[in-house]
Amino acid sequence: MHQAVLLEETIENILTNPAGIYVDCTVGGGGHLSYLAERISRDGFLIGLDKDLDVLQRTKERLAIDRLLLIQADFRNLQSVLQEHGIDYVDGIMMDLGVSSFQLDEAERGFSFHEDAPLDMRMDRSQEFSASNLLNTWEEASIAEILFEYGEERYARRIARAIVEARKKRPIKSTLELVEIIRGAVPARYSRETHPARRSFQAIRIAVNGELDALKAVLPQAVELLKPGGRLCVISFHSLEDRIVKRYFQDEARSCVCPPGMPICTCNHQPRVQIITKKPIQSSTEEVEQNPRARSAKLRVAQKI
Ligand SMILES: C[S@@+](CC[C@H](N)C(=O)[O-])C[C@H]1O[C@@H](n2cnc3c(N)ncnc32)[C@H](O)[C@@H]1O
Question: In this structure, how many other beta carbons lie within 10 angstroms of the beta carbon of residue 156?
Fold first, then answer.
């Protein structure tokens, strides 16, 4: 079962109107969605998006929620997806980024470095580009760059070199083959500190699914869609994601975005949001004890002005 992270904190923050319309951009196992369903009134309405059709179907079978519309879609198209369903404004939007336990547990999806599977890692299986394409076709420098940037992997260059050497002999096909290549490229002591493939797998997943671009694309749409007083709640697990959210909220909360040193303001920028969480909300020690994934979770909340 997927344990929803920062559940109480998210729902407490998003719920401003029990009769409102709320969007969960990352339905996953439906933890946040079903808790929100319990808290809205009979006049409220919920919309759930997930780009992973398998996840969405499994969750649909389990959830017994009235007044819910589930849509398979990438949240990077949030505004057009909602408009197709006749929805122009909503009361709250939430996102719980990253991968769900459903995806990790389904070995054949290739997200887990513990299970042998084809190198896939696509959240949307209709997408062509997979982990196999990335690892077998990208240049060494590009592989090193994503391992370093998205995985903060200190042995990024060594691992990228080992990947390119290995694929010269034959294409890299499976997750455990990749794990062995990574293990062989890093010092033995690194494997004692952590699973040596953890960071690389995270980086490859982020690149395959274009996760950071999707986040950058959805934030302005979300703010546009909110009614005044409506709230946007974003849970991130990665420092790059958190930085994107933090900076976006700061920019939208500012009354002037003129370059520094301008004698007078010429931008006429109007703040569009008020930041509710000056510092991100993080999981309690108890939550982290029960769910280690919660350790890196950060919730940021902004309210439409
Ligand atoms: C961490 S899980 C969400 C878990 C959920 N909050 C719960 O309580 O069960 C993230 C989900 O978001 C989905 N996802 C990630 N990026 C997405 C995107 N750009 N558009 C739509 N869904 C996305 C993934 O497929 C995954 O199912």
Answer: 22
Per residue in 115-145, pLDDT tens?
999 999 999 999 999 999 999 999 999 999 9
Q: Does 111 map to a domain?
A: no
Question: DSSP letter at 231?
Answer: E
49 CA distance to ligand 1 middle (Å) = 8
Q: Indicate if ligand 1 lies below 6 Å from the C-beta of 32.
A: yes
For 268-289, how does the pLDDT look when each residue is reduced to its tens digit (9 = 90+)? Answer: 889 999 999 999 999 999 999 9
Domain count, the chain: 2
Please identify which residue in the block is written with the tokens 């999707």.
214
Residue to mutate, 8, 22, 24, 26, ligand 1, most ligand atoms under 8 Å from C-beta: 26
Residue 46: count other Cβ atoms within 10 Å of its Cβ: 23
Nearest atom (ligand 1) to Cα of 103: 27
Residue 119 lies inside a defined structural domain of this protein: no
How many angstroms is it from 116 CA to the middle of ligand 1? Answer: 23
CATH number at residue 85: 3.40.50.150
Cβ–ligand 1 distance for 70 under 6 Å, the answer: no
Are the C-beta atoms of residues 13 and 299 closer than 8 Å to each other?
A: yes
Q: What single letter denotes the amino acid at residue 297?
A: A
**Residues 6 or more apart in contact with residue 91 via CB below 8 angstroms:** 16, 17, 20, 21, 22, 226, 227, 229, 230, 231
> Tokens representing 173?
């096909």
Q: Are 297 and 283 in contact (CB under 8 A)?
A: yes
What's this model's pTM, rounded to 2 decimal places? 0.96
> Nearest-5° angle of CA 135, CA 140, CA 144?
85
